[in-house]
Design brief:
The chain is mostly helical. It has three domains: about 20-140; about 195-415, Hypothetical protein af1432; about 425-495, ANL, C-terminal domain (GMP Synthetase, Chain A, domain 3). The chain is about 70% helix and about 5% strand. It contains 15 helices and eight strands. The chain has helices spanning about 1-135, 140-150, 155-185, 205-210, 215-225, 245-260, 265-295, 305-310, 320-340, 345-355, 370-380, 385-390, 400-415, 425-440, 465-485; strands at about 195-200, 230, 240, 315, 320, 445-450, 455-460, 490-495. It is elongated and about 200 Å long.
Length: about 500
C-alpha cells in the first residue's frame, strides 16, 4: 500500500521537477533567441544606415551633376541668345541697307523713265522734222529703205537663195530618185488601151442591114437594152459600139457577136443574147477581181467588194486600164512602203482599192475618191485603208500610207505609154497652162511646150525684177497645182531678158 503511494509521490515530484527543468530550458532558449534577434536587428539597422548614407551621397552627386549640366545649358543658351541678337542686329542693318538701295534704285528708275520720256520726245520731234523735210511718214520711209536695200542686195539674195534651193533639192531629189527608181524598175504593165468606142467585126457588108433590121427595129432594140449607140458607117465589114460605160459597150459587143454567129437577128433573140452576154460579163468581172487579188496576194476581202474591183477591167482613165493601173499602184505602194518602213499590207490593199470608186462613178453622183470612201465604209474597211482611198488626190494626205499611195498613183499614171489624151483635151490643157501664166502682171508672152510638161513665161524686164521673177514662178506653180489636174509634174520657166539695141550711122 505504501509502495504505490511512494510511486505516485515520486511521479508527482518527477513531473514537477521536469516541469521546472523544462521551463528553465525554455527560458534559456528564449533568452538566446531574443539575443539573436536583437543582434540581427542591430545588424539590419547598421546596414540600413550604411545604405541610407550611400543613397544620400549618390543623391548629392546627382544634384551636383544636374547643377553642372544646368549651368552648362545656361551658358549655351546665353551663347545662342547672344548669337541670335547679333544676327538680328546684322539683319536689321542689312535691311536698312537694302531699303536704302531700293529707294536709290527707285529714284534711278524714275530718272531713267524721265530720260526715256525725254528721248521719246526728242525722237518724235526729230521724226516730225524728218517727215516735214522728206515729205513722207515713217512707214513710207521704211518701205523706201527696204526697197532700196532689196534692190542693192537683189543679186546676193538671188544667188544665196538659188544655192540653198539647189543644195536641198539635189539632196532630197537624190533620195527620192533612189526610192522611186528602185520601185519602178521592179514593175512593168501594159500601155494605154481604148477609150470610149468598141469595134465589132462583121463577116460581110450584108450583116449591117440585118443588124439594122426592118425600119431600124433591131438596132433600136440593141441600143435601148444596152444603153449604147451603134454606129453603122462606111467602114468595111465593121460597126462601132459607142458609149461612156465600158461594161455596156462590152455587153453590146458580146451580144452582137452571139447574134452574128447565130444568124437569127430579131428583137426576141436580141433580148436573149443580151441577157446571156450580161451573165458572161458578170462572171468575167468576178474572175478579173479574183485574179487581180490573187496576183497581189491579197486575201480576206469581201467577195462583193472583189466583184466591184473586177468592174475596173472595163474602165479606162485617159486610155489606161484602171484594173491594171490599180494592180500596178498596189505593187509600187508595197515596194515604196518596204523601203520607207511603212505598213506594207495597208499600202498594198489601199493601192489596190484606191480607184474603186471609178467602178460605179457612171451610176453614182460624186467624185471617185468620195464614192470609194463610201464603198469602203459600207464593207467595214478600217480607217487606215479609207484614208488613202479618199486622199490619194489631195495635197496633204494624213498618213504615210496615203502619201505612198498618192506617189504610186502618180508614178503609174505618168510613166511613158501609160495614158493617152484626146486631141481636144490636150489643146485645152495647153491653153489653160498659158492662161494661168498670162494673168500675172508684167508677163509679155507664155508658151506651153513639151506636150504640156513645161510652160515658158517671158516677162518685161522693166516691170519685173529678178527676185520678183522668182516669186512669180512660185506663184504660177502653185496656181497650176491648185487649178489643174495632170499626171507627173510641170516645169515653170521665167525668162527675163534685157536687150539694148543701138545703131551706128
Amino acid at each position: 500500500m505504501l509502495y504505490p503511494i511512494l510511486i505516485g509521490v515520486a511521479a508527482v515530484v518527477g513531473i514537477a521537477l521536469g516541469y521546472f527543468v523544462r521551463k528553465k530550458i525554455a527560458q534559456v532558449e528564449a533568452d538566446s533567441l531574443e539575443s539573436k534577434m536583437q543582434a540581427k536587428l542591430e545588424e539590419t539597422n547598421s546596414k540600413s544606415r550604411e545604405v541610407l548614407l550611400k543613397a544620400k551621397d549618390k543623391a548629392l552627386e546627382i544634384i551636383d551633376e544636374a547643377k553642372k549640366e544646368e549651368q552648362t545649358r545656361r551658358r549655351e543658351i546665353q551663347s545662342q541668345q547672344s548669337r541670335v541678337e547679333n544676327r538680328e542686329s546684322l539683319f536689321d542693318k542689312k535691311l536698312l541697307e537694302l531699303e536704302s538701295k531700293q529707294s536709290k534704285l527707285q529714284e534711278k528708275a524714275t530718272q531713267i523713265e524721265q530720260i526715256k520720256d525725254k528721248i521719246k520726245q526728242i525722237q518724235q520731234e526729230q521724226l516730225d522734222k524728218l517727215q516735214k523735210v522728206a515729205a513722207m511718214n515713217k512707214e513710207e520711209a521704211q518701205a523706201v529703205l527696204l526697197k532700196n536695200v532689196e534692190r542693192d542686195m537683189e543679186e546676193t539674195l538671188m544667188s544665196r537663195r538659188k544655192k540653198l534651193e539647189n543644195e536641198s533639192e539635189s539632196t532630197f531629189e537624190k533620195i527620192a530618185q533612189e526610192k522611186i527608181v528602185n520601185a519602178v524598175q521592179r514593175c512593168a504593165t501594159s500601155h494605154a488601151a481604148e477609150i470610149t468606142t468598141t469595134v465589132v467585126d462583121l463577116p460581110s457588108e450584108e450583116m449591117k442591114g440585118r443588124i439594122i433590121g426592118r425600119e431600124g427595129r433591131n438596132i433600136r432594140a440593141i441600143e435601148q437594152q444596152t444603153g449604147v449607140e451603134i454606129i453603122v458607117d462606111d467602114t468595111p465589114q465593121a460597126i462601132t459600139v459607142s458609149g461612156f460605160s465600158p461594161i455596156r459597150r462590152h455587153v453590146a459587143k458580146r451580144a452582137l457577136e452571139k447574134l452574128i454567129l447565130d444568124g437569127r437577128i430579131h428583137p426576141a433573140k436580141i433580148e436573149d443574147a443580151i441577157a446571156e452576154a450580161k451573165k458572161e460579163i458578170a462572171v468575167e468581172i468576178r474572175k478579173a477581181g479574183e485574179d487581180a487579188a490573187y496576183e497581189l496576194g491579197i486575201a480576206g476581202l469581201d467577195p462583193k467588194l472583189v466583184q466591184i474591183v473586177g468592174r475596173l477591167k472595163y474602165r479606162t482613165s485617159y486610155g489606161q486600164n484602171v484594173l491594171r493601173h490599180s494592180v500596178e499602184v498596189a505593187n509600187l505602194a508595197a515596194l515604196l512602203a518596204t523601203d520607207l518602213g511603212a505598213n506594207v499590207t495597208v499600202a498594198k490593199k489601199a493601192g489596190f482599192l484606191h480607184d474603186i470608186g471609178k467602178a460605179v462613178d457612171h451610176e453614182i453622183q460624186g467624185t471617185h475618191p468620195e464614192i470609194g470612201r463610201d464603198i469602203a465604209k459600207k464593207f467595214g474597211l478600217s480607217e487606215e485603208l479609207i484614208a488613202p482611198i479618199l486622199e490619194h488626190h489631195e495635197d496633204h494626205p494624213s498618213t504615210i500610207e496615203a502619201i505612198i499611195v498618192k506617189v504610186a498613183d502618180a508614178i503609174s499614171g505618168a510613166r511613158p505609154g501609160a495614158r493617152k489624151d484626146t486631141y481636144e483635151r490636150y489643146l485645152q490643157r495647153l491653153e489653160e497652162l498659158e492662161n494661168i501664166a498670162k494673168r500675172n502682171e508684167g508677163v509679155d508672152k507664155s508658151y506651153a511646150i513639151q506636150a504640156g510638161r513645161e510652160v515658158r513665161v517671158f516677162v518685161e524686164p522693166a516691170k519685173v525684177s529678178d527676185i520678183e521673177a522668182q516669186k512669180m514662178a512660185e506663184k504660177i506653180a502653185k496656181d497650176i497645182e491648185s487649178e489643174l489636174k495632170y499626171p507627173g509634174e510641170i516645169r515653170v520657166t521665167i525668162i527675163r531678158e534685157n536687150r539694148i539695141v543701138e545703131y551706128a550711122r
